[in-house]
Amino acid sequence: MMTKFWLLLIPVLWLAFPVKVAPQNATPASVYEHRADHDPNGIGKFYMGREIAHVMGHTGASWLERAERIAEEKPDDVIKNFKLRPTDAVADIGAGTGYFTFRISPVVKQGKVFAVDIQPEMLAMMEQRKKELKADNVVTVQGTEQDVKLPEASVDLAFMVDAYHEFSYPREMMQSLVKSLKPEGRVVLIEYRGEDAAVQIKRVHKMTVAQVRKELEAVGLKWKETKNFLPYQHFIVFEKAKV
Length: 243
Ligand SMILES: C[S@@+](CC[C@H](N)C(=O)[O-])C[C@H]1O[C@@H](n2cnc3c(N)ncnc32)[C@H](O)[C@@H]1O
What we know:
29% of the residues lie in helices and 27% in strands. By secondary structure, the protein is α/β, with parallel strands linked by helices. The chain has one domain: Rossmann fold, CATH 3.40.50. Strands 4, 5, 6, 7, 8, 9, 10 and 11 form an eight-stranded mixed beta sheet that branches. A three-stranded antiparallel beta sheet has the order 1-2-3, with no helix packed on it. α6 links the parallel β5 and β6 (138-142). The chain binds S-adenosylmethionine.
């Protein structure tokens, strides 16, 4: 008698306390936040507490090739610290004019360099330079704001120099980048030091190590080391986490 009474109560309890099951196609809550009150150098869109910067337009291309960059950003030391093998497939994400791409091309003679950018004008400049230098192992790739557009499991090392802070969809970009990495693939992020007041760069163009780690670990990358050989920038190395 008592058991039957409890059975009768089940539909009543179900109506009073429905189990909330998300529909299969539910859109996950946005990882981005928009604020009206923000830094004029940023786009007013925030990711994990950081404001995203405006994309540097192609009309500023000559600034990327400025002579002072050699002393400021030490490209040869950067490339030495990538520890590349001649057969590696490297991806330069947000490659711009190819400042790093064309320095890496001869280092990976039997491999290749994917030079990814979203601005067709930047890709055209790189295509022109590729012809001039006969850099046949450079592959220019038109990416989108959310996708690196690289083949799955094809990249040994992906790197970003002064670019990640302006990705307007950093979560989606990094998720697609992780898919493009080989199982032992590495990611290196080079950004101006956010913790260092002596680095005279606009706030939204700098990043702290803590922020970089928070954002890249959120897509499943594993922090390996932070190297301090650059005058103004961090050199932060991540590995693809084993699954
Ligand atoms: C400041 S430039 C740096 C270029 C280059 N890495 C260098 O160090 O000379 C940043 C570049 O990132 C590109 N960029 C911005 N958002 C991007 C995205 N979601 N995917 C690929 N490239 C992007 C821009 O078009 C621009 O060419």
